[in-house]
Amino acid sequence: MAHLYLVAQIAGRAVAIDSxxxxxxxxxGGVTAVPLASAHVRGLAALRSRVVTVVDxxxxxxxxxxxxxxRAVITRVDGHHYAMLVDALDDVAPFExxxxxxGVALGPAWRAAGRGVVERDGEPILxxxxxxxxxxxxxxx
Amino acid sequence: xxxxxxxxIAETRETLEALSGEIVAWEANPDDKSRLDAIFxxxxxxxxxxxxxxxxxxxxxxxxxxxxxAQVRCGERTPDTGLVNAVLAVVDRIGEIVEAIDSxxxxxxxxxxxxxxxLAEGTDMIAxxxxxxxxxxxxxxxxxxxxxxxxxxMSGMSDMVLARNELARRMREGNIDPALEAALERLSLTVGxxxxxxxxxxxxxxxxxxxxxxxxxxDTAAGLGKSxxxxxxxxxxxxxREMIEMMRDPLVHIVRNSIDHxxxxxxxxxxxxxxxxxxxxxxxxxxxxxxxxxxSDDGRGIDTEKLIAxxxxxxxxxxxxxxxxxxxxxxxxxxxxxSSKDEVSEISGRGVGMDVVRAAIEQIGGRVExxxxxxxxxxxxxxxxxxxxxxxxxxxxxxxxxxxxxRQAIEEIVTDGSDAIRIDTIGGVEVLTVRERRxxxxxxxxxxxxxxxxxxxxxxxxxxxxxxxSYALGADTVLDTEELVIxxxxxxxxxxxxxxxxxxxDSGMPMLLLDCAGLASVAGLDFSSDGSRxxxxxxxxAASPGIPALLFQDLDGVRRAVPLAAVDRVEQVxxxxxxxxxxxxxxxxxxxxxxxxxxxxxxxxxxxxxxxLKDDANEISYAINExxxxxxxxxxxxxxxxAGPVSGVALLDGEQVExxxxxxxxxTHADRDGMGDEERPVCLIQGDEGGWMASFVRPLLETSGYRxxxxxxxxxxxxxxxxxxxxxxxxxxxxxxVRLRRRRVAAGAGDxxxxxxxxxxxxxxxxxxxxxx
Lengths: 141, 773
Known about the structure:
The complex is a heterodimer.
Chain A: E1 2-10, E2 13-18, E3 24-27, E4 31-32, E5 41-47, E6 50-55, H1 57-60, E7 71-77, E8 80-86, E9 88-96, H2 108-113, E10 114-120, E11 123-128, H3 137-140
Parallel strand pairs in A: 2-11, 6-8
Antiparallel strand pairs in A: 1-2, 1-9, 3-7, 4-5, 5-6, 7-8, 10-11
Chain B: H1 2-28, H2 33-53, H3 56-73, H4 81-103, H5 112-119, H6 147-173, H7 178-202, E1 203-205, H8 207-210, H9 213-224, E2 228-233, E3 238-240, H10 241-262, H11 266-271, E4 278-287, E5 290-297, H12 304-313, H13 318-322, H14 326-331, H15 353-363, E6 367-373, E7 377-385, E8 390-398, E9 401-406, E10 410-415, E11 421-426, E12 429-434, E13 437-443, H16 444-448, E14 460-466, E15 469-475, E16 477-485, H17 491-494, E17 499-503, E18 511-514, H18 516-522, H19 529-543, E19 547-554, E20 559-563, E21 567-574, E22 578-581, E23 584-589, E24 592-597, E25 607-614, E26 619-633, E27 637-639, E28 646-652, E29 655-660, H20 662-669, E30 682-686, H21 692-703, E31 707-709, E32 720-724, E33 737-741, E34 754-755, H22 759-772
Parallel strand pairs in B: 2-4, 9-18, 13-15, 20-29, 24-26, 30-31, 30-32, 32-33, 33-34
Antiparallel strand pairs in B: 1-3, 4-5, 5-7, 6-7, 8-9, 8-16, 10-14, 11-12, 12-13, 14-15, 17-18, 19-20, 19-26, 21-25, 22-23, 23-24, 25-26, 27-28, 28-29
Helix pairs in contact in B: 1-2, 1-4, 2-3, 3-4, 3-5, 4-5, 6-7, 9-10, 10-15
């Protein structure tokens, strides 16, 4: 059963995001840092009259370095809006979600976020659950 | 009053519209509990509102319907067609009367007795609805808006402000046509005004809620033959309009409950030594990110025993209920269908009160706290979130970033380097002294772990008060005061523990609101009496010579001082560690039992502050209410006229302060175990039949400093021998003998025995005999 997915680049890797989780895609402006917050929280940004929490997906996925992306996917988790930073957006297309092939060992953060794979022109792309990248959220799951 | 009436009419009309569906459904299925509840709530609300709006006809109708429905609710009555019809007729009638009030027409009340009679059990009579129809509706003077709509308006407004700011920024960059500038100016003005208006649509002073109270309290109290003085505070606290609406019914319920169930009749109050006038305090204040509405009365409080009895009567499991903690028992008051008062009154009804109150408050994300003081009063605190409310905040800069601090948390702002303040480093931490107040100092940048801005300007210091105490918070700059709409931040942000919410000021850059209490706890400030005392102790040492003393508030409420040298430490103990044992209060601290001295009531507290007083050999604890300050005693102390717990009075800052007599405390309270066994005179007990002396006299002797023996060890000599008068003088009288007699009166002139219950006489005799040797 094909479903609409957004294919984006995070830390140079392609990921597929369920379009149901995506409210919009924006370029974010100034970010207010949140001292003492988890490293995954880049800060707060204004999205029109709303304040969103900007999440550094690269660090949330357990990869070194800090993303310098300005583009973000807006998602809503438990009534709060989050801007998930992505390097680039490739594509929006219907894909079929397939289970991950057995024996593929992902890093722990990737494994927590991974929901399966979609295949684009023979290239497998990991489908991730944005909500699991939200700091504080993962701890609950 | 007019506003309230309008409000009531609009509300009743609205509920009636919503209810019409429920009524039809109930008619179809009279056993439907939820429909029944909805109708019941309606008549109950109408009844409540009528009470203070002075609408006796409506009150009579709704009270009658409520009675009938209550019977159905508790299963005493099954709803039949007759009842359904009668209730519906009453509900219709209420609607008609309300319309009549609104349009100012008169509606004759024939047939209302019939309507009420039809509610009675066993009547099949279908009340004929009277012919009168309320005429036309009066034109409405106000519209009731959906809050969603207001929300959308509000966020649209914010967008507009941000767009205007952006436009202004862009225009400043280039050359501006003055005409364009004028147009922008006008736009700005309009947008500003619009925003104020839109903001006001959401916000309302809590006065809107409180203004009805005086009349209501008066009427309720008068109806019950009580007299109650009402004090209202904090009427200008602003609250979201929606929250005010939601708070209205709970507040009315609580206030009525207080008057009806809490405050006693004047005669009963006199008997329990209270003033005849009951006191009812209603106050609102903002605390951190919450609004707290407090209703406190000086009535009889909640009788948990009665609650339990009532629950048992309603089929609760008594063992289970008894096993509840004190708090749990108190919480029973929120159980549905429970009224701790025995009879149903017109005022606060039949226990619909507290469960409905709590549900309504929890619905808006609030909570209810009870502080019960049996016999003395009840304090109910309603905490509702600040969310959506606008607060006045001070914007500070730290490390190039801006933070908002709620203005009411800030006592004052001082500049680093001004003469009025001093910053010292004590043991690696900074301490600020301002006008003889000393408090810990935090640096916002350090607490948040951000790089402070390098600037020439002086540091700004805000003195922040949190419930536990005050501290100083250093920031790079203080920028502005602003009215901010605070919204809760995401869990990822809130979990840091130092933020109370987020806001979007006009600059378009999100800003965080600091939670001052959170900052203090993250920074590890400890305001418990121990911590602050240590700090104050250091301060006192640095201050001046003289006898330093600890100023404290005693259990009986009197301010007393005790020389610091006598105080080993101040400690907090749980009430469970205090026991009345062996004739006196004793407290267990650190696995030891210490005598507990006190002036005042020890019982009835959860925790106690105790002073641990120490001399060379003894240790005593002394219960106090709280430690206040370290002071230096003046040289002039007026000595007390009698020996007692107070050695004298000193004048401190124009106030008389009693000095605790440490010697007296030790003398009266210390357990006499200071002396070693060898030094104690040995008291030999002889002829003790049935062990009476061993069990009754021995403790007395031991506390008085004797060592008690029943047989002498070889080589040991007794200082005194204690014997009973009917025992034979067995041993050689190597030691003086004191005889105890059973009779109260001495046998004759030669009888030097001591009546065995005469403690003082016994001790005197023993002393005299041992002293002779």
